[in-house]
Every structure is written in C-alpha cells, then in structure tokens.
Sequence to fold (251 residues):
Amino acid sequence: MRVLRHLLVVLGSLLLLCAGGPAMARPVTDFTAGLAPVASPEPAAAPSPGPRPGGGGDSEGKGHPPCPTTNRTGGTNTAPNPPLDRYYQGDWRLGPAQLPRYGEIGRMLEGYERLDDFRTASSFLDCYWNERTNGWWYPHPDGWVLLNGSPLHSTVQLKAGQKVDLFGSGFGHFLAPAGTPYAERALPPSNLNTLDPAYPNGYHLYEVTEPFLVEAGPIRSWFGQPGYGLQYLTGPSIPQLVAAGNLRPLN
Fold:
C-alpha cells in the first residue's frame, strides 16, 4: 500500500506538471542517458514495480534482503580525491561516518538507513557493488520505475521559479524537486560524500530561471531504499543548463 500511495502521489505530480504551460524557451533535443554504463544492461526477467530491495529476508535465509539481479547496469565510480570526510567503516562507498541531523540536509536524511536491512556493510556491497566495472549496480534504464517492463516517465516542462536539487558531483543529468527525502531518491550512500567544500554532502540547490523540458517519473526502489520520489532527467548536463541560463545555483 505504501508503494501504491507513493506512485499515486508521483503520478499526480506528473499530471500537474503536464497541465498547460507555454512553449519552452530552450528546447531540449536528443535526450541522452544520465548514467554512462560501461557494461551492457542485464535483461529483464520480470516486470516491476515489485517488492523494494530491503523488504525482507532472502529465500536462502542469509539474513539480508533479496538483491536485484535484473534490469541493472554497472557504472564506474571513484573515491573522492582528496578525501574530505571520515567515511563509515573507513569505506568511501558507504558515505560519511557522520550524517547531518539538523538543517536542510538533516531533514532530508530523517529516517534514512544507509544499509537498510542488511546486517553488514559487506552484504550490502555484495548486492550493489559491481567488482567488474568497479562501480555501483544502477537500475536500468536511468532509475525509472518499470511498469509491465516499460519505464514510467513523461516529458514535462520545468517552469521558472521551481526549485530543484541533487546529491552528487553536480555534473550529471539528474534533478529532483527540492527537499525530496534522500530515501525516496534511492541513491547510493556515496552520493552523500563531500566532493567540494562549497557543497557539503554533495548537495546542490537550484532555481529554474528559464523553462526547459525534462523526462519526469518515479524512482525505482534501489540501494535498499524505498524510492518512488520524483526525478527529472535532463538532456544537457546540469552545468550546461546553468551556463545557458536555465538554472541558477542557490548554494
């Protein structure tokens, strides 16, 4: 029921975004995937959405949630250089040892459990870290919820005055409505690492200054997190949108 409620809320948001609005000021054409996979995606075995990763023990009784093994693609991720945090259990992949409890970021992290129901960090990494590509297993394609095997998203226009944000390097193609809880973004814990002292915990906040098109839809459960927040996939990268005057950094 919780998943259904999340999905209905996201679909309602999409309907509001799609309703009316003038033509966009800067057309986005030739959409490119925000993830740059280095391995071929594994084929689908069953339609989603289904039980979230982290929703119970596995069938072999190993004490950790079932791992998603289909509809995924391997990325390449590198450790922050230089390291600007003390990392959880000394491993940068698991994010900062201490997470904010107060303020804007603290509110978005309320209730967040980086390992979810996994008993150990090693079991979490066994599930979501791809040793072959030296990076995370990401949900394919582009983190969308799958409905009968098809990604659930729609082209919408972000309007001037809307606030959007992201956790990460700030060089990619993904945004979310500002303030979306971290657990609903279904991101790996490493996205909370500080890569630039100007952006603690990798948090970037923007205001839309000129309308532009995005692909919008619900986020699939992944990394042991519930997901089902709303995400925006952009054509140009975030720095390109800033340079073009579509986005204005607020932090």
Remarks:
- The first strand starts at residue 72 and ends at 74.
- Residues 2-18 form the longest helix (17 residues).
